[in-house]
Structure formats: C-alpha cells, structure tokens
Specification:
Largest sheet: 4 strands, mixed
Radius of gyration: 25 Å
Oligomer: single chain
Distance between the termini: 49 Å
Number of helices: 17
Shape: globular
Helix content: 10-25%
Number of strands: 16
C-alpha cells in the first residue's frame, strides 16, 4: 500500500511493457531464439532512446568478450557516481553536472554545517566530503560529531546508495534521481527526465520533509510502540520502520508532485524555489509566477499535464499578519517533533540492553544487532561503515528518542524575525563509550546559546481551521 500511494495520480509511473514467449493466436511461430552476445547477452536491460549506445561507453569493460572475467576487466559499475559523473555524464551534460556539483542536494552543506557548528566546529565546510575523518578515537565534541555525521547521519546523499530497505535503495550521483529502483534493485536502465515522488521519497522518508507531504509520521523505535505487532519474525518495512498515516498535504491530495514546486533550477542549480505567494498572491501580475490567468480563472499546469485551479489569499489575517508570520504557522496541519534525540557511539559490542530497539533506521546497525542478539554464534563486532567512503572503522552509533510527537505546532523566530514553524532538530545528546567501558562523553549537548528549535517548512498544508489565532496570540504587530 505504501508503494502504491507514492505513485498514484500525477506521480504514477507507467509500468514497463510485459513480454511473453507465447505466440499470439493466428501468428506463425517465431524462429528459435538466438542468444545475444556482448553485455546485453547477460544484462538484457532496456535503454531509453537518448541513452541507447554501447554499454562500454559509460561502463568501460570489453563489450566483445565472451567470458565474464574478460568482459568485466576495467569495469566501472557506477559511472554516475560523484567521483566519475563529470567524466561520463559530463560528456553530454557538462554544464548541468557543473551546476549540480554546487547544489545543496549534492553537497548537503546546510545540514552538515548546522550540526557541526552546534558542537563547536565553527568553520563552515563546502561539502560533506570535507568532514574530517582522521580521529579513530574522538577526544573532543567536534571530532565526535564529525564521526557521527560520516557514519550515522549522511546515508541519503548522492555518494551513497541509501539504506538497504526496499523503498530507499537508489543510485549514486546523477542516478540517485534519474534511475528508478524497485524493491531495492535497479528497475531498468531507462533514465528518468522528470523524477517521480518515488525517487524523492527514497531519501525524504522517516521524519523528514517529504514523508509529511504524504501524511507519514514514523513509528517509534521501541518494539512496544510499533504496529502491527508480529508474533513471529518481524518483516522488513519498505522504509525501515512503519508509519502513522496522518493527513496528507492539500497539494498532494490535488495531484501535485514534488517537482511541481521544486523544479530543476532549485534542485540542480540552487536557484530560488517557489513560495506560497508565487501561486496564491492575487496581487502578482501575469508572468510573475507560475500561475496563468484565463477568463478570470487562475490555473496552474502540473508536470503531468493536469490543470488545477489556484485560490487567492483573501482572509484579512493575511494582510494583518502576513509580513510577520510564515504561512505554515496557520496552514500546517501537523509537524515533526522528535524530542531528546540520543546518539551513543559504542566501541564495545554490549548489545544486550538494546533488544527492544533493534529497529534503528539503519539497515547496517539493525543487521548487526539482530545477528548478535538472536543468532547462535552470531557476529558481535562493534564496527560501522563510513557513509561516504564505505570503509569500516571501530564503533557503532545507536539511536533512541525521549519522545516523538506531531500534535503540537512549535513556533520560533527565524533570522529575519518572522514567526515560523520549528522542530527540535538540535535537541541532540551525544555519548561515547570506549571498548574498555570508559564513558568519554555522556549525553553532551550543543554549545550554549545554540537554539534547540530550528525553523522549517512542514509539507502538511491544509485549511487554517477555526483555532489558527491561538498560534498567533504571541505575535507582536508593529
């Protein structure tokens, strides 16, 4: 059901054509099938028209060899990876690749610097790849948070193939958005010009913006709070954990998909995104936003070709509070709020206290916990891979929350003094226990003066409702 929800309506991808070896009634039987040679003899993948050229143009190897070892000599398995996409993708898409390399989606610089600076690493980094990795045994909060980011947090970026869950596996580099995966495996080799929401949700799942657009709030980690309860072996959920189904965003219900608002310019070149006023401010003249006007009717053409009517802001509250209050303060139906996020690095494999928390939002950690706790003679090492390089090093990062809520809308002021919806994303508590049991850091928190609440835009838009003024009672008007 979860996968079906992602692709219905405008975001639905047409299924690949099915092929059958049976003859159609009335037709002559076809000639005996001759096995194909070269790459496609073993990899019968369909290519889209624009990329239908020899496999070795991108993957190298020997396309004329008849044996696997010779054919795979010098093979490049992921030519779209960030380390190689300029060489391969850039031959035809050079300017785009150059723009993408500086985009927030590529560098993750905003998230990286937000967390690093909260723990004393003041100097901003240009990209996640610049996060230091020298400290095997962290001796400062700054080194500890760098290890956390490289090995526990950054698993959705374009250097990684994502968590090994059925709905979250994806390609690297350009392929992260432009190749489709189903059930954790590459669906085909047809490049997607316009990524569907399924591509977006491969990273924007869990309690991250994107999942809320579909009304999803992740279950808690503890087995007692997850549903349904399983009498036997617990199945692997598409997104690692199940979710509470809450109210989806009004725009999602209207058939809009992510790229209807977040276009290529924003995602790949870092240009400004659309705002609520881009569509709903009736004072904007023709051509100032994406909305067209015809016979007095305001319309928006969606990426799937559907036309939807666009209402205009009319309530007097917009004129009174609009310059001081973000739209979602009134129109957000609910918001993410994970309080007391505890992350502990353990260099000793003492997993016994974590039996009820084997679901961690990390497939690697979950496999290690389940093997150590429930498999006779199971491996009990305390090692974890670097999310950027893939190299293993000592220590595992385990996660727990104090409480997870959606019912209250938290607010705070942004850097412009505007009231916005906020979430406690920096309500972090980091610990580190060495292999000999010494507790080096015990629930350290961000530097003094760092606000736990951070402004964000929940994608849970709906009507303001009867009690929206309750959220505005502390707003000071000029």
């Amino acid at each position: 059901m979860g996968l079906l929800l992602m692709v219905y309506g405008c975001s639905r991808n047409d299924p690949p054509p099915s092929f059958s070896s049976r003859s159609v009634a009335g037709e002559e039987p076809s000639a005996p099938h001759q096995p194909a040679t070269g790459c496609r003899g073993c990899h019968p993948l369909a290519l889209d028209e624009r990329h239908d050229f020899p496999c070795q143009d991108c993957h190298l190897g020997d396309g004329n060899a008849s044996e696997q070892k010779a054919a795979h000599g010098g093979l490049i398995p992921q030519p779209a990876h960030p380390d190689r996409m300029s060489r391969f993708c850039g031959r035809c898409h050079g300017s785009i690749v150059e723009q993408v390399s500086a985009s927030i989606h590529y560098t993750s610089a905003k998230e990286v610097n937000l967390v690093r600076q909260a723990f004393g690493n003041i100097k901003p980094l240009a990209s996640l790849t610049a996060i230091p990795q020298e400290a095997v045994v962290p001796v400062s909060p700054g080194q500890l948070v760098d290890d956390l980011l490289r090995r526990r947090c950054l698993r959705c970026h374009v250097y990684s193939s994502g968590e090994a869950y059925p709905a979250t596996r994806h390609g690297t580099g350009c392929a992260a958005c432009h190749l489709g995966f189903v059930g954790g495996s590459l669906a085909d080799h047809s490049f997607i010009a316009r990524p569907s929401d399924q591509q977006c949700l491969g990273c924007h799942y869990g309690n991250r913006v994107g999942a809320d657009y579909y009304g999803r709030f992740e279950h808690d980690l503890n087995w007692e709070y997850r549903t349904p309860l399983y009498a036997g072996e617990e199945k692997r959920e598409p997104y690692g954990l199940g979710y509470h189904q809450l109210a989806p965003d009004l725009h999602q219900q209207a058939g809009m998909v992510c790229i209807d608002c977040h276009g290529a310019g924003e995602l790949m070149a870092g240009t400004e995104s659309l705002s609520c006023r881009s569509c709903h401010d009736g004072a904007l003249a023709q051509g100032e936003g994406p909305v067209s006007k015809r016979d007095g009717r305001r319309e928006l053409l969606l990426s799937c070709g559907k036309v939807v009517a666009v209402p205009v802001m009319a309530d007097p509250a917009h004129a009174r509070y609009g310059h001081k209050v973000g739209c979602q303060v009134c129109h957000g139906q609910w918001a993410f709020a994970d309080y007391g996020t505890h992350l502990i690095r353990m260099d000793d494999p003492d997993y016994e206290p974590w039996q009820s928390l084997t679901r961690q939002g990390s497939a690697e950690i979950e496999t290690r916990l389940e093997t150590a706790l429930f498999v006779d003679g199971g491996e009990s090492e305390a090692i974890m891979d670097d999310g950027i390089t893939g190299a293993s090093s000592p220590g595992v990062w385990l996660l727990a929350y104090e409480r997870r809520r959606w019912e209250d809308i938290n607010t705070c002021l942004d850097r412009h003094g505007t009231l916005q919806v906020c979430r406690p994303i920096l309500d972090l508590h980091l610990s580190y226990r060495k292999a000999d049991g010494e507790l080096v850091f015990d629930a350290i928190t961000p530097d003094r003066g760092t606000p736990a609440m951070t402004p964000y835009t929940p994608h849970t838009t709906g009507k303001a409702g009867a009690f929206y003024l309750q959220r505005l009672k502390n707003v000071e008007l000029p």
